[in-house]
Amino acid sequence: VLDENGENAASQPLDTTGGAAAPTTHQALLSWVNEVAELTQPDRVYWVNGSVEENRLLTDELVDAGTLVRLNPETFPNSFAAFSDPKDVARVEEQTFICSEKREDAGFTNNWMDPGEMRAKLDGLFAGSMRGRTMYVVPFVMGHLAAEDPKFGVEITDSAYVVASMRIMANIGTDVLRKMEELDAFFVPALHSVGFPLAEGEDDVPWPCSDEKWIVHFPEDRSIWSYGSGYGGNALLGKKCYALRIASIMARDEGWLAEHMLILKLTSPEQKDYYVSAAFPSACGKTNLALLDPTIDGWKVETLGDDITWMRFGKEGELRAVNPEAGLFGVAPGTGWSTNPNAMRAIAKGNSIFTNVALTDDGGVWWEGMTDEAPAHLTDWLGQEWTPDAGHPAAHPNSRFCTPIDQIDMLADEYHSPNGVPVSAILFGGRRKTTVPLVTEARDWASGIFMGSTLSSETTAAAAGQVGLVRRDPMAMLPFIGYDAGDYLRHWIELSGKANQEKLPKIFLVNWFRRTADGGFAWPGFGDNARVLKWVIERLEGTADAVETPIGFVPTGDSIDLTGLDMTPADVEQAVRVDPQEWATELDAIDEWYERFGATLPQELKDRLAELKDRFAAA
Ligand code: GTP
Ligand code: SPV
Ligand code: MN
């Protein structure tokens, strides 16, 4: 293991004195690190500085250990492929817990266990869990280091793969640590172990993990304990665990929003800029929309973020958004030169870690949808020979690319602004074969929150469990709300009271995934989604036509720009159809959903549901 100069520091004893030789003057951090080392018994402790040189040495070690495969430097410079244990490929929602003091504070959408009981269980599991390994201390900040109130965390992990991935996804290392010291700042303690201690002389495996997995959040002290998994959302703790679950709790207390959203900037042919945020569930199109390459002339898209958005009302009552992340952890399958060239160009610059993709014979990577035709021969994500007639995908459906965000050519300059951008429209979207129109404009803010609260989507490979089941996913936050879901919806409603009502974003519901009678997609999606964004902007400007339906306003057949597309206004009408029979079923499902909330469901939303039923009854 390396010290700050890249020297071998294996013999460096842990400094428990806080003296001159201590790696930090932040006493709370030092004592937490010592406490964890005491509990987990690593062979050594290493403070991560975040340098290029350190990263080179760490990735070298990971290649030697067989965790990473170095890709062909000509085509994928400084890039690596990792292959997980086949049982460690996605977030484990069943094993994810919010351990608030009171059960009701976790709400019905979260697993809960008494915090004392959970701590005792975790103490048992973490005891000696890092034996034979290095314990890495990774100071990080989510969002800008120059923010008014920077949000610090420190991840302790026994996985060098996690360190290398965190380096892409967040700002980490010495600069962050120095700032934490200067401010004597609070940090979220985020403890991670793969749960695979090594006995004396025992050989390691390429992807250590445990059959038993626990992803645990303690809201009152804002701490995170993650055990047994090396997969992204379970192990890169700055991401879902901090920037969504813990941050949603901070946001509730401090008056802001932490959301599962992308942010994009749209420039119209008149050179007017608009910022749009959009919440879609996991693997439902955020990265693709964020990196959109418009198929219509005159409209320009730039990106600010693809997965997580923090929003607060600014001085003029406008809603301002920032992306707290520094990288993309994107779904690989379906990302290709024809569907998402901006992502492909960012990936091609290198400095990326791919997980559970397939390897080409010339040391590159491949996944379904990267090119129209699959290569004649591959090594699949399980290490088996693969040919196009194999009958199964070469890459895991939840395989991912992890790439620095500043490699995106179309990254908006405003990404770098700590004050964020003013949002003028919010989209909520899901993956629905039926029922939900291509795009619907909400009547007003409260109806928009209603749309968000009843958002639904077919489950995907991003979480362990069955794929393709319709489930409600409020604001695409079902697996990420860190507290009671009814209180979360109330927070959305109450926050808007702080807004300049003139500047409140308009809210839209979208569905790129509706099918036609013959089973095909009713809408081409991807770059053509710019046509829907154009309609959204024209609605903001009051220039596009719409039809009023019980659920809101949908485009008229000829209000969507179809230039250059093999589609007719009648096809658009099909894609935006509000079918009373489908909606009768939907309203029953929404009734059932709302019943699950219990007492905390805001009355405003019950009222919106009643009005919706009345409108269908009158139609
Ligand atoms: P997470 O990173 O899991 O939060 O997912 P995400 O919301 O960023 O999803 P992403 O953009 O990576 O899309 C996931 C899948 O949806 C990919 O397989 C895409 O090919 C597919 N997809 C994205 N946009 C569209 C679209 O407009 N139409 C269709 N048909 N599929 C799409
Ligand atoms: C998601 O599942 O929504 C992701 C990937 O963005 S992960 O970071 O694994 O949660
Ligand atoms: Mn996500």
Could you characterize what this model shows?
The protein contains 15 helices and 31 strands. Helix 2 (about 50-65) runs antiparallel to helix 4 and helix 14 (about 580-595) runs antiparallel to helix 15 (about 605-619). A hairpin with an 8-residue loop joins strand 5 (about 135-140) and strand 6 (about 150-155). Residues about 5-20 have low confidence and may be disordered. The chain is of the alpha+beta class and about 625 residues long. Strands 1, 4, 5, 6, 7, 8, 9 and 10 form an 8-stranded mixed sheet that branches. A 6-stranded mixed sheet has the order 14-12-13-25-29-26, with helices on both faces. It is globular, with a radius of gyration of 24 Å. Manganese (II) ion binds near residues 260 and 307. It comes from Arthrobacter zhaoxinii. This is Phosphoenolpyruvate carboxykinase [GTP]. Monomer. It is an enzyme of class 4 (lyase). Its cofactor is Mn(2+).
C-alpha Rg (nearest Å)? 24 Å
Strand content: 15-25%
Number of extended strands: 31
**Outline:** globular
Largest beta-sheet details:
8 strands, mixed
What small molecules accompany the polymer chains? Answer: guanosine-5'-triphosphate, sulfopyruvate, manganese (II) ion
In round numbers, the mean pLDDT is: 95
Helix content: 25-40%
Please, how many helices?
A: 15
Which consecutive residue ranges, at least 5 long each, have pLDDT under 50? 5-20
Structural class: alpha+beta
Distance between the termini: 70 Å
Main location: cytoplasm
Binding site for Mn(2+): 240, 260, 307
Function: Catalyzes the conversion of oxaloacetate (OAA) to phosphoenolpyruvate (PEP), the rate-limiting step in the metabolic pathway that produces glucose from lactate and other precursors derived from the citric acid cycle.
Active site: 284
